[in-house]
Design brief:
This protein is an alpha+beta fold. The chain is built from eight helices and 18 strands. Belongs to the acyl-ACP thioesterase family.
């Protein structure tokens, strides 16, 4: 019965024909839904669309809605009135059609070969980076966020350094050389070797900014970071970076670094094994450093030669990387802890040279020392160019990082109120 009702909703059952003598079928008579007897034949004649009354436990029962099927001689069939509701389309059928088209298009999309023919054609729709220039240079874009800026709404030096580190790791990953370590290749992972930076040189021509266009809309600059690697001596690797403004192409930052291998278990420096050399040499670029090396010797500071000292610096758990030592970007923040506040407010860091001499762990306690040269300490606010010498050391005096920074006057900018 359910099937019959469902079928009738799509294929309506025509009304029973009227008696030519004008007599209609009566309710309760043997002529039920078009089923009747013919006196001349003495046998039952089944008319089209006839339905037999259902039985339950051998007893005949009335068919729900049977009264509607029986037409009297006064009744005539009329079409349903046209209303807004019954003129609406069948949304379920429309949705099924759209879903079918979408699944078919998705299947065709997956079957197509979208692998680029050249590495410089790889698109980067999600900002994950791509390989350019014959597969030797890695490029990635970053948008400056509100939490990456300082009081002057410019990106901090730590933000710039984090972008450099991120592109370096993604470069190794995109080349298929990322093992289970922090930038280690598969062969390095087998031999418990990791990369450690020994020297970093950075020149910042202009810092990207984050601006508030109105009380509702904000905008952060988008920077484009290129990085590549080259050989440095017999047992080292040089990594260079070039940071540009993504819209104008203006060069913002240039950086160069030297890396060596260290045994993760013994914490001692190691030569590059031939197996590892075979992995990384195909990606070396035969080019000069993006920055000319600053050959000036970095001065060793002590309590007598330092103008500012900050003690009691300890790493937090979040400062450790996966190799269980302090991330090299954190050292930069510690170095600037002892920089004079007046200089930080009125000067901007334009260049930095660092020599990493020792690692430190989560239980280390450090001191940051800074000596100012090129001007009187009392006139830092009016000085044009300032040079500082830095030292980060453990409490027992062991050197962790030596550094030199150069500063220049900041460009006046509009001051915005703090949003609450």
């Amino acid at each position: 019965m359910v099937a019959t009702s469902a079928t009738s909703s799509f294929f309506p059952v025509p009304s029973p024909s009227l008696d030519p003598n004008g007599k209609g079928n009566k309710v309760g008579s043997t002529n039920f839904a078009g089923l009747g007897s013919t006196p001349n034949s003495g046998r039952m004649k089944v008319k089209p669309n006839a339905q037999a009354p259902p039985k339950i436990n051998g007893k005949k029962v009335g068919l729900p809605g049977s009264v509607e099927l029986l037409k009297t001689d006064t009744e005539t069939s009329h079409p349903a009135p046209r209303t807004f509701i019954n003129q609406l389309p069948d949304w379920s059928m429309l949705l099924a059609a759209i879903t079918t088209i979408f699944l078919a298009a998705e299947k065709q999309w997956m079957m197509l070969d979208w692998k680029p023919r050249r590495s410089d054609m790889i698109m980067d729709p999600f900002g994950l980076g791509r390989i350019v220039q014959d597969g030797l240079v890695f490029r990635q874009n970053f948008s400056i966020r509100s939490y990456e800026i300082g009081a002057d709404r410019s990106a901090s030096i730590e933000t710039v350094m984090n972008h450099l580190q991120e592109t370096a790791l993604n470069h190794v990953k995109s080349a298929g050389l990322l093992g289970d370590g922090f930038g280690s290749t598969p062969e390095m992972f087998k031999k418990n070797l990791i990369w450690v930076v020994t020297r970093m040189q950075v020149v910042v021509d202009k810092y990207p900014t984050w601006s508030m266009l109105s009380l509702v809309f904000t905008r952060g600059d988008v920077v484009e970071v290129d990085t590549w690697v080259s050989q440095s001596g017999k047992n080292g690797m040089r990594r260079d970076w070039l940071v540009r403004d993504c819209n104008s192409g203006e060069i913002l930052t240039r950086a160069s670094s030297v890396w060596v291998m260290m045994n993760k278990l013994t914490r001692r420096l190691s030569k590059i094994p031939e197996e590892v050399r075979g992995e990384i040499e195909p990606y070396f670029v035969n080019s000069d450093p993006v920055l000319a090396e600053d050959g000036r010797k970095l001065t060793k500071l002590d309590d007598k030669t330092a103008d500012y000292v900050r003690s009691g610096l300890t790493p937090r758990w979040s400062d450790l990387d996966v190799n269980q030592h302090v991330n090299n970007v954190k050292y930069i923040g510690w170095i600037l802890e002892s920089a004079p506040v007046g200089m930080m407010e009125r000067q901007k860091l334009k260049s930095m040279t660092l020599e990493y001499r020792r690692e430190c762990g989560r239980d280390s306690v450090l001191q940051s020392l800074t000596a100012v040269s090129g001007c009187d300490v009392g006139n830092l606010g009016t000085a044009g160019e300032v040079e500082c010498q830095h030292l980060l050391r453990l409490q027992d005096g062991a050197e962790v990082v030596r550094g030199r920074t150069e500063w220049s006057c900041k460009t006046p900018t509009t001051t915005w109120g703090t949003a609450t």
